[in-house]
């Protein structure tokens, strides 16, 4: 199994659809997105990837997830040596300072509040991909 | 002249029960347990053909041979043994003995190891049918419903019984002085009714004797008392204790006292109330008048009947008065056990603290309030009195019937508050209850100057001598109220317990309520936070898909596009509203972090954001002084963002829109004002502009949620700051916010 560019853990079907469409519109539609709808499932998938010695280039995590919560998933990722340096962003509807601070304390590389409206989503994902996929160097 | 003043209580020390003398109208013989004559009054020889020295040390039989020649020797001894076994001589006394043409009443009594035989004439100035008289007297006396009538009737009956010139009823007050409360007298005599006699007139040990001997006769003050003789034992002679003697001679001071009054014979009957000497029926005759044992016993019986009636009547009168107080107390106590404001329970109901005792004014100082009932000193005076009490009250309760004597400032209001009964609720808080009694300017008519003068005898020694003048000597007593009774003080203390209990219970109730309120607030904040958050997800779906449809579907006609734009616009509005509600609830939940805020920078940032957001290119914005504020940075930014947003928004249609912001220090506060030349606020809405979701009619056309000012208000309150507004419709609005300069001011 090959590793996706972006591993996106999200349970809201509508938003998954919107994000998939938006990703299709950026980077000439070449960005590989893999979506998992359950926290525990996401952890299993990541384990498999690690076994195959591959990893995603960016992980986007929603906060409210079935199975394992977004924050717990984030901690597990940051505790896994092979995944520790993979940029992991929290991608949530919340803009509550408490949520932001907690996420950063758990090791999130950034906290992004989901924008309202498709156009804004496209803009947002474009800049995320610009920076995290095309600008930075990873270990 | 020595400065030494004879203490009036000195005559308390005169040993009157062992005067060593008996009155002249009878004679006394005392035998020891072996019937040997040990004491004898010298005057026996004026009654019997015997010499004292022939009897002393001899057996009683020697005397019997003269007294009772016809009887078997030893009769008196038999009676003594009888009395000894019966432990009293009441059934035997008096024993009539006829010697020649004279007859005597023998009155026997025991003192320590001696038996006293007292002989006095049977002939009496009054010869009456005792049975009949007493029966009638009692009926007459008890017909009086009130104590006053009872006493008047009693005096009347006693006068009829013994025929003395004057019969008075004395009542002793707490301090021992006596007042004549009833009097029956011969018409030509001056009345003593209403006169007061100083306590020293009847010294303490005399009172004790009045409690033991319920009647006392002084047959003739001018008759020379006869000394009691005894044989020395081992060279020492002991005086005989005459406590139980009916012939006991009278103290020379008292004899002088009576002589000064012109009295020749005096007879008194003790009135007892609950084992204490309540008073005396004092009878005076201005010529010698002896009344015999039987008449004295009859008088004693009347005295005892009055005493028991006294107990009954006095109790009844006390009871009637205390019933009312008790009813008021019970009602208050009952109310206090229910819920409700303590101060309104004890000052506003049918029964108030004024009704629990015989007071004419009452004050409750509680929770920074001073509630006055009835006649009380004024607020200023009460404040001063309270401070004085706080300094001087040692105990929970304090009472005086002479407040102005203790606290000179109280003289200003002695008319309403010469009597004070105070009871603390909380000493630290200065909370207390007070009751007042008015000044009783009473004139006491003393029978002569109560300060019994000391005189100097021929040896230059100070001696006590009784008053010679009994002319009325008036004394006006000021700054004094009626005394507080034990019952009143006890009631007040009981009430205090109830009030303190109610206060504590209510404090707990308020604390619990506060906790609940706090919890409810937190729940409401959590609720609004959660609901707003959860609303956002479906909302973003609506907006996302509307936009997607608009973007990707080129086949849509213009009308469909316009409809989709309306949907998006609605979603945006809803989103903004949710965001504001979130902000509002967040103010309640947020922890405050106080810092010194650079207001110049903060205001400039807000202004540049606004100009872009609201698109008001011709805005004239002026920034005056910007002193720093102490507060939570995020929140303060929200306050000014909202105020500036409103100022810009509502003046956008003015030409040109002008917004001014400046701050200055006023009385240790930093006051910022944000003014605009916008639409203004209707005066009628001033109170409601800070309410959540409240928007004014004149701004319907402007974008807004009605949350902004509610958030501002909430933040201002969290900072213990103030906000107010001045505005005129069509002219403009000035908002003022005032923050404390130092400290966060939070409690």
Structural account:
The complex is a heterodimer of chains A (139) and B (747). Chain A is 44% helix and 15% strand. By secondary structure, chain A is α/β, with parallel strands linked by helices. Chain A has a single domain (6-133), classed as Rossmann fold (3-Layer(aba) Sandwich), CATH 3.40.50.2300. Chain A has a 5-stranded parallel beta sheet, with helices on both faces. In chain A, 35% of the residues are buried. Chain B has 4 domains: 9-16 and 125-223 and 231-318, GAF domain (Beta-Lactamase), CATH 3.30.450.40; 21-121, PAS domain (Beta-Lactamase, 2-Layer Sandwich), CATH 3.30.450.20; 485-589, Orthogonal Bundle (Helix Hairpins), CATH 1.10.287; 591-740, Histidine kinase-like ATPase, C-terminal domain (Heat Shock Protein 90, 2-Layer Sandwich), CATH 3.30.565.10. In chain B, 39% of the residues lie in helices and 23% in strands. Chain B contains 18 helices and 29 strands. Chain B has a 7-stranded antiparallel beta sheet. A 6-stranded antiparallel beta sheet of chain B has the order 9-8-7-13-12-10. In chain B, a hairpin with a 2-residue loop joins strand 26 (658-666) and strand 27 (669-676). Chain B starts with 20 loop residues before the first strand and ends in a 7-residue tail after the last strand. Residues 1-11 of chain B have low confidence and may be disordered.
């Amino acid at each position: 199994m090959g590793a996706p560019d972006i591993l996106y853990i999200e349970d809201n079907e509508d938003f998954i659809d919107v994000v998939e469409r938006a990703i299709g519109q950026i980077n000439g539609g070449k960005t590989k997105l893999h979506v998992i709808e359950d926290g525990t499932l996401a952890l299993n998938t990541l384990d498999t990837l690690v076994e195959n010695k591959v990893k995603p280039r960016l992980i986007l995590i929603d906060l409210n997830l079935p199975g394992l919560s977004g924050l717990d998933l984030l901690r597990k990722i940051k505790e896994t040596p092979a995944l520790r340096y993979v940029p992991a962003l929290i991608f949530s509807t919340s803009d509550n300072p408490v949520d932001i601070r907690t996420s950063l304390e758990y090791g999130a590389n950034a906290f992004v509040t989901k924008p309202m409206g498709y156009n804004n989503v496209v803009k947002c994902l474009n800049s995320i991909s610009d920076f995290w996929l095309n600008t930075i160097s990873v270990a | 002249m020595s400065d030494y003043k004879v203490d009036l209580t000195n005559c308390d020390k005169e040993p009157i029960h062992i005067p060593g003398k008996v009155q002249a109208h009878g004679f006394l013989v005392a035998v020891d347990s072996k019937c040997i004559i040990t004491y004898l009054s010298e005057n026996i020889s004026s009654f019997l053909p015997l010499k004292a020295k022939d009897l002393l040390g001899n057996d009683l039989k020697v005397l019997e041979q003269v007294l009772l020649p016809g009887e078997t020797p030893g009769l008196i001894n038999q009676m003594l043994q009888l009395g000894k076994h019966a432990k009293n001589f009441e059934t035997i006394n008096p024993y009539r003995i006829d010697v020649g043409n004279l007859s005597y009443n023998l009155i026997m009594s025991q003192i320590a190891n001696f038996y006293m035989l007292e002989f006095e004439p049977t002939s009496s100035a009054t010869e009456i049918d005792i049975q009949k008289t007493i029966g009638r007297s009692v009926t007459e006396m008890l017909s009086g419903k009130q104590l006053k009538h009872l006493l008047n009737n009693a005096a009347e009956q006693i006068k009829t019984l013994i025929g003395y010139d004057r019969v008075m009823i004395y009542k002793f007050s707490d301090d021992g002085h006596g007042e004549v409360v009833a009097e029956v007298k011969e018409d030509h005599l001056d009345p003593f009714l209403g006169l007061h006699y100083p306590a020293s007139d009847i010294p303490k040990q005399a009172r004790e004797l009045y409690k033991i001997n319920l009647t006392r006769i002084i047959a003739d003050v001018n008759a020379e008392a006869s000394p009691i003789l005894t044989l020395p034992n081992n060279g020492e002679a002991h005086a005989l204790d005459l406590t139980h003697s009916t012939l006991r001679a009278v103290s020379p001071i008292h004899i002088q006292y009576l002589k000064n009054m012109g009295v020749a014979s005096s007879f008194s009957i003790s009135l007892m109330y609950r084992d204490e000497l309540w008073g005396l029926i004092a009878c005076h005759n201005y010529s010698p008048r002896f009344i015999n044992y039987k008449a004295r016993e009859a008088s004693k019986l009347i005295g005892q009947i009055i005493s028991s009636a006294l107990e009954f009547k006095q109790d009844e009168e006390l009871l009637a008065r205390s019933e009312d107080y008790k009813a008021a107390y019970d009602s208050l106590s009952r109310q206090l056990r229910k819920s409700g404001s303590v101060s309104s329970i004890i000052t506003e109901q049918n029964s108030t603290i004024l009704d629990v005792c015989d007071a004419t004014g009452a004050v409750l100082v509680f929770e920074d309030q001073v509630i006055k009932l009835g006649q009380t000193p004024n607020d200023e005076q009460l404040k001063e009195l309270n401070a004085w009490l706080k300094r001087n009250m040692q105990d929970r309760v304090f009472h005086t019937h002479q407040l102005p004597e203790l606290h000179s400032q109280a003289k200003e209001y002695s008319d309403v508050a010469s009597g004070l009964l105070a009871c603390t609720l909380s000493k630290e808080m200065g909370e207390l209850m007070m009751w007042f009694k008015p000044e009783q300017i009473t004139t006491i008519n003393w029978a002569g100057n109560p300060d019994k003068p000391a005189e100097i005898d021929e040896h230059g020694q100070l001696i006590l001598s009784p008053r010679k003048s009994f002319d009325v000597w008036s004394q006006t007593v000021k700054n004094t109220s009626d005394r507080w009774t034990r019952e009143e003080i006890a009631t007040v203390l009981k009430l205090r317990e109830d009030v303190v209990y109610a206060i504590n219970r209510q404090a707990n109730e308020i604390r619990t309520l506060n906790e609940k309120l706090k919890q409810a607030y937190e729940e409401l904040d959590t609720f609004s936070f959660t609901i707003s958050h959860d609303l956002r997800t479906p909302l973003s779906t609506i907006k996302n898909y509307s936009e997607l449809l608009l973007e990707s579907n080129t086949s849509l006609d213009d009308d469909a596009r316009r409809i989709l734009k309306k949907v998006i616009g609605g979603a945006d509005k809803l989103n903004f509203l949710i965001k504001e509600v979130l902000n509002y609830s967040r103010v309640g939940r947020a922890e405050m972090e106080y810092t010194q805020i650079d207001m110049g920078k903060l205001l400039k940032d807000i202004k540049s954001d606004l100009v872009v957001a609201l698109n008001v290119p011709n805005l004239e914005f002026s920034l005056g002084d910007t002193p720093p504020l102490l507060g939570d940075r995020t929140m303060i930014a929200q306050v000014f963002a909202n105020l500036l947003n409103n100022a810009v928004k509502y003046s956008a249609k003015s030409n040109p829109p002008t917004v001014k912001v400046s701050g200055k220090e006023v009385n240790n506060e930093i006051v910022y004002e944000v003014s605009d030349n916008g639409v203004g606020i209707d005066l009628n809405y001033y109170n409601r502009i800070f309410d959540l979701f409240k928007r004014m009619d004149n701004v319907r056309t402007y974008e807004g949620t009605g949350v902004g000012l509610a958030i501002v208000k909430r933040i201002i309150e969290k900072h213990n700051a103030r906000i107010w507004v001045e505005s005129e419709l069509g002219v403009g609005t000035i908002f003022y916010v005032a923050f404390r300069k130092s400290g966060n001011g939070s409690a």
